[in-house]
């Protein structure tokens, strides 16, 4: 039987929960694959040899994560970076906007409720100065994005993989799955995401909300926009952004707004606010995104460290 | 001195380890529970537009994202001075019940029960959900169904089953459709039934392992949690603290938490330790704490269960392993509450959101009961609504001291000499597991939690590292 391992690195474990969200089909999965290592679900403490598929969720945030991920690469035939943290650093990547010492002191010495001045250091793995996406450290065979990947999508890929097939992966952006109408708008103004109540049926970006749908990988079924909420980009960059070195979340989003509003680029850029938390919150830990010639990530890091 | 290590602690959420120090005679001199990860949310929320917090903070924990979403939304409502419509409050409560049903079912059946159903010494490669499926497929199926109901309620009220998005400043982003209401009502009925079937199963497990229940994981503590009019409360209400004898120590609105609670750090854990400024300071939160602080649950079937529990274990039981029984009572309470919310005709009302205009207060504090205990989100913003300071206190932080001391007590009870079996170490893990610790949450600050068990000699040399399996 195929041997399956799962590893939660620095993560919220939501990616593991999403596998459990296969519900009854979990039994089918367990009938076809033998779970040999999965610290959240079982007591095997070290990954054994001869793993067929290792599903890695979470980012690399400390030395122990780093060792685990290398060990799993040695022991597994196929490695899947599962979820946005593993693929692009996820929210943990936001830690890069501050130095390690700033993070430690804000939590352990400067917090309003904390009275001690101790910074932990014994018997615990050392924190790295930044978070890393798994694929920036080891070779990855498949990237499955989503925060977490939606279970309907998982049904389409995980079960075929376990059966030895190469799954068909959808390649569209969130906009392609969204049922709102995108049309040219006049007098566009950017709104904060809390302002007003969005109108039904109309594109949120057109209504002035920073909706990341057009630059975000689909596969979630446009869940947020469907429920009246602008897309936050939690599934990571869309395929066109990923493929092209001169395309980035920021510049493509600005371009889309330009198409929609016919406003000059400079005017749109003036209105953008809190770029790290509104445009890049899920990809700050990704070298792929940071290394793009047009990426704003290097500027954000520099600015925050000054 | 020798040192035993259990690393990583498994079937818990996040990364942690246990170390046990043995003296020259092989007796336990000291033991600790270590959270081994940290991610840094409190810091990287700085600079964020505050309305983004309810979408970023659920990523602290994928098992309890809903409670972070709700605590954060409550804090943000306060910042915008938002008036949340009645129906939106009901929908938020329903969303919360989805969280409790899913998380309690997950912990109870899939993570904790394998130790009791299969036995603490059972083959560690199978002492888990896979073994449970083999040994008791009916129970395993019911567990999966129980979780599914919770996740379906969360999805239909939160927009997503994991990391819900619907609580927005001023209410909810969408109303519940009538057809969905009917579908969820049928599910909630089934959930009540699953809770009813589970109760005798769990109580029998507590009986079967009475020796363990009454001898390991024993700590004497105060208890803290939310209540409203003395009843079990998850979303709102005052924080009540009682001492180990049941005498009330404090009763205060969550926003005053700084006058009552403080935190300290220890060198050996990324997770901080909280302390009550009153009483002896040492307290616990979560299911056992909640059933201990309340006068009654407030729903009929769960109240019957509480009466049975108190008749058997007394008014303020202290045993760590009884967390599982308390969790089952709450699983019933959450199912019954979901059902009554779904049977309320107002739940499908379309008025679910009041528009907000701008920052009204520069501080917002949201307190809710998370599945594992009291959760506090405290944000300070500038006049444009950008976060300048964030402070988070999560359930496992409140329980950290208790877990640490319960690990010491169990090790002292169970370990004599360095020839320690895997099953013995698993009994220590069972004590940790009873708290359903969420190290991801507790170390929201920067990372994740592995647990390890090490034995050191009096010179600090590691003599034995017990890796399980
Ligand atoms: S990708 Fe999202 S769901 Fe998965 S571990 Fe990261 S934060 Fe959690
Ligand atoms: S920008 Fe957003 S709202 Fe507009 S079509 Fe794309 S996903 Fe839908
Ligand atoms: S719509 Fe956007 S933010 Fe929402 S789940 Fe999909 S990718 Fe994530």
Automatic annotation (TrEMBL), chain A:
Signal peptide: none annotated. Pfam families: Oxidored_q6 (PF01058). The keyword Oxidoreductase applies. Keywords: Oxidoreductase. This is F420-non-reducing hydrogenase subunit G. One of its GO terms (molecular function) is oxidoreductase activity. SUPFAM superfamilies: HydA/Nqo6-like (SSF56770). Residues 12-159 form the NADH:ubiquinone oxidoreductase-like 20kDa subunit domain. It comes from Methanocella paludicola (strain DSM 17711 / JCM 13418 / NBRC 101707 / SANAE).
Automatic annotation (TrEMBL), chain B:
Pfam families: NiFeSe_Hases (PF00374). It comes from the Archaea. The keyword Iron applies. PROSITE patterns: NI_HGENASE_L_1, NI_HGENASE_L_2. Keywords: Iron, Magnesium, Metal-binding, Nickel, Oxidoreductase. Fe cation binds at residues 64, 441. GO terms for molecular function: ferredoxin hydrogenase activity; nickel cation binding. Its cofactor is Fe cation; Ni(2+). Ni(2+) binds at residues 61, 64, 438. SUPFAM superfamilies: HydB/Nqo4-like. Mg(2+) binds at residues 42, 392, 444. InterPro entries: Ni-dep_hyd_lsu, Ni-dep_hyd_lsu_Ni_BS, NiFe-Hase_large. The keyword Magnesium applies. Belongs to the [NiFe]/[NiFeSe] hydrogenase large subunit family. This is F420-non-reducing hydrogenase subunit A. The lineage of its organism: Archaea, Methanobacteriati, Methanobacteriota, Stenosarchaea group, Methanomicrobia.
